[in-house]
Design a protein that fits this description.
Layout (H helix, E strand, L loop, with lengths): L2 H20 L2 E5 L5 E5 L3 H13 L9 H9 L6 H8 L4 H14 L3 E3 L12 E3 L1 H13 L1
Antiparallel strand pairs: 1-2, 3-4
Length: about 140
């Protein structure tokens, strides 16, 4: 089983647990002094909806919201400081962990000097996938 399949199974389990907690049971006393219970949502239909949403969604072009912000502001090759200023971020570590690293790992951006990741001349630019994702983001806006 691949990591992606494992993640989807785990996601389905977590969502199902969360929905089960939120799916309240309503009770009504009938005229015969009996209690009639009913769930807010049909559990089987909800489970099917969750599975369909997970399995039939195309996750290949989606980026986390923070990475989407980076894609929107990245024009040509820009250094870290320029990107951070455009995103109005002051914390360098937050930027590196939540924006830069995920975008690099996803292949959406690349370093202009990949052999020297810590170079003071280092800049970042969109890859072909990043360009495609940025166009999709703009189209969907």
């Amino acid at each position: 089983m691949s990591i992606k399949e494992n993640t989807r199974i785990e996601l389905k389990r977590e969502l199902t647990k969360k929905v089960e907690v939120e799916n309240k049971t309503y009770a009504r006393i009938t005229g015969k002094a009996q209690r009639e219970e009913r769930r807010l949502w049909n559990a089987r239909a909800l489970r099917e909806a969750i599975i369909n949403a997970i399995l039939h969604n195309d996750y290949t072009t989606e980026a986390p919201p923070k990475v989407e912000g980076l894609l929107r502001v990245l024009n040509a090759a820009m250094d870290r400081q320029e990107i951070q200023e455009n995103l109005q971020l002051s914390d360098r570590e937050n930027f590196r962990i939540n924006y830069l690293k995920p975008a690099l790992d996803a292949g959406l951006i690349e370093m202009t000097i990949p052999d020297k990741p810590n170079s003071k001349l280092q800049k970042y630019r969109l890859t072909a996938l990043g360009e495609q994702s940025k166009k999709e983001l703009i189209r969907m806006s």
